[in-house]
Amino acid sequence: MASMDIGEKRRPQSGSFELNFSGYPMSLRISTLPTALFKESLVIRMLPQQTVPDLHQLSLFPNSAKKLLALLSHSHGLIIFTGPTGSGKTTTLYSLIQHSADRLGRNVITLEDPVEKQNDSWLQVQVNEKAGVTYSAGLKAILRHDPDVIMVGEIRDEETAAIALRASLTGHLVLTTLHTKDAKGAVFRLLEFGLKWHEIEQTLVAVSAQRLVSIICPICRETDCSLTHHAASKSKQATVYEILSGKDLQAVLKEAKGEGSNYQYPLLKDLLRKGIALGYLSQKEYDRWVFEEEKGREVSR
Hints:
Layout: E1 13-21, E2 24-35, E3 39-48, H1 55-58, H2 62-71, E4 77-82, H3 89-102, E5 108-112, E6 123-126, H4 135-143, E7 149-152, H5 158-169, E8 173-178, H6 183-192, H7 197-203, E9 204-214, H8 227-233, E10 237-245, H9 246-257, H10 268-277, H11 283-300
Helix pairs in contact: 4-5
């Protein structure tokens, strides 16, 4: 059903298909991984296909949503989102491009692997390496299709990074994701890809690192309460955004060039502490995030 080769067990495969669960359209992303003794591990990621929520519904702090939406006023440039798998990067991107298409009337084209949410408001291109539609080849073709806003699912290599940067230099607003620990790390990762510092300075509009957090129920003041309580409060989880832009971004760029040292800006941990102080988050949620950060550092070592 996911157009994968059922006779192939020696190499990893991925695919997707759609089903209806009790009247709700759901996209299923399938991934297989060969293991020892000729076995296979299979993972299914379930993605609801309902309307993309507004960014104000996703963000824990309204000011963060306002900042991200204000970035869409740029006619060209590069906006990068970072965060671990499952932190909601794709949902954030969909919310932003929906705002661009519906509210700002811009021509939006996406390049994804695979397409996670079907939407008629913009053009969606599926990466298909067997057919020659890689991220780099697809992005080159999109540039000839007169887009205003381009969403690239992920920057994976030097070639894709260079084309995305060139697209943002030639009058396109490019939104994409990158795997780094924090917002500052994205700047240094672009330099590792071999991009020139002055090109990054000219094109990079903002970098946002995000985490998905569990909100305290306003009724019982717990994060793991009954579903009826969370249904009444309309939300069980929210996103915290560490946004690097403006003067903060310029300071980090100078640091990357070697002209500054360890510039401090509002970090995720500071925003999580703010959430605790305002009563949105529990200390347990902060401790869980700190544990994950320490675990990530040990893995990287």
